[in-house]
């Protein structure tokens, strides 16, 4: 069933590249969601991605109690991206954002950052997370990691009877900006990280090849790379008790949640665990909250997860 309000796909007049916006819902308010810049094997893969990600944003806002709907946008990288081409496609994307008249408000996502939001702002007011020196809140990776750690606290109490992870084995798949901050916030845990980018291997933490990250015996698994990592196949090989992480759309389909439950693995849905970034950004940029107040709202994820897990029994 088609559940989205709109999907618009455009070829940019400056760049000749494809950009798209999926507006899942504006029922609760203007739709927010990141702008992903990524290479896809097929254009239909990009469309599938933007549709799923935008729906997840609606859920994320609803669970977090944010008066916004969900959307997402994708810039399809189909050639080498020179600085000139990057700027051209971002300006093309800003034109597309403007077509929604404020119903879609963009932020950074995988492949984009605050500097890209600054380029969007040249043509559209509907872009969050500008660099701090330009009056924005910058990267949301810090609040996102903080939200995951808050979720992990509540989930650890539920699974292990304590939120002290000292000595517990934790595997983080995806050692990017959020994954690294989570690792640094985990105190005395025995941490192993994994990334397709070998240059991320620092020696500070244990290392496992990305193909094996979902088979390692551990207490906690933290998906912090890409979506679609929990499939019927990967779930069969998992040897963990708890999964909580920031990666969006971790399940290949909703049925995988049931498979995890059957195996006795507690999974905190990504739309709950990864909401710290959007909670923080909107608290600061929409509501004018100060840094500490916005972080307190992010910490509220702990109570949300506690309630959710208690309700599950
Ligand atoms: N940054 C945020 O505020 C935020 C908010 C909500 C959700 N998320 C989600 O969290 C995840 C991580 O975000 P980020 O900002 O750290 O992104 P990032 O791009 O900084 O890091 C992702 C890392 O994953 C690695 N990677 C890619 N494919 C991999 C694979 N198959 N196996 C292992 N590693 C792989 C990349 O090399 C990179 O180092 C993404 O899925 C993102 O959508 C991020």
UniProtKB/TrEMBL annotation:
<feature type="binding site">
    <location>
        <begin position="174"/>
        <end position="179"/>
    </location>
    <ligand>
        <name>NAD(+)</name>
    </ligand>
</feature>
<dbReference type="InterPro" id="IPR046346">
    <property type="entry name" value="Aminoacid_DH-like_N_sf"/>
</dbReference>
<dbReference type="GO" id="GO:0000166">
    <property type="term" value="F:nucleotide binding"/>
</dbReference>
<dbReference type="InterPro" id="IPR036291">
    <property type="entry name" value="NAD(P)-bd_dom_sf"/>
</dbReference>
<comment type="similarity">
    <text>Belongs to the Glu/Leu/Phe/Val dehydrogenases family.</text>
</comment>
<dbReference type="InterPro" id="IPR016211">
    <property type="entry name" value="Glu/Phe/Leu/Val/Trp_DH_bac/arc"/>
</dbReference>
<dbReference type="Pfam" id="PF02812">
    <property type="entry name" value="ELFV_dehydrog_N"/>
</dbReference>
<dbReference type="GO" id="GO:0016639">
    <property type="term" value="F:oxidoreductase activity, acting on the CH-NH2 group of donors, NAD or NADP as acceptor"/>
</dbReference>
<keyword id="KW-0547">Nucleotide-binding</keyword>
<keyword id="KW-0560">Oxidoreductase</keyword>
<keyword id="KW-0520">NAD</keyword>
<dbReference type="InterPro" id="IPR006096">
    <property type="entry name" value="Glu/Leu/Phe/Val/Trp_DH_C"/>
</dbReference>
<feature type="active site" description="Proton donor/acceptor">
    <location>
        <position position="72"/>
    </location>
</feature>
<dbReference type="Pfam" id="PF00208">
    <property type="entry name" value="ELFV_dehydrog"/>
</dbReference>
<protein>
    <submittedName>
        <fullName>Leucine dehydrogenase</fullName>
    </submittedName>
</protein>
<dbReference type="InterPro" id="IPR006095">
    <property type="entry name" value="Glu/Leu/Phe/Val/Trp_DH"/>
</dbReference>
<feature type="domain" description="Glutamate/phenylalanine/leucine/valine/L-tryptophan dehydrogenase C-terminal">
    <location>
        <begin position="136"/>
        <end position="313"/>
    </location>
</feature>
<dbReference type="GO" id="GO:0006520">
    <property type="term" value="P:amino acid metabolic process"/>
</dbReference>
<dbReference type="InterPro" id="IPR006097">
    <property type="entry name" value="Glu/Leu/Phe/Val/Trp_DH_dimer"/>
</dbReference>
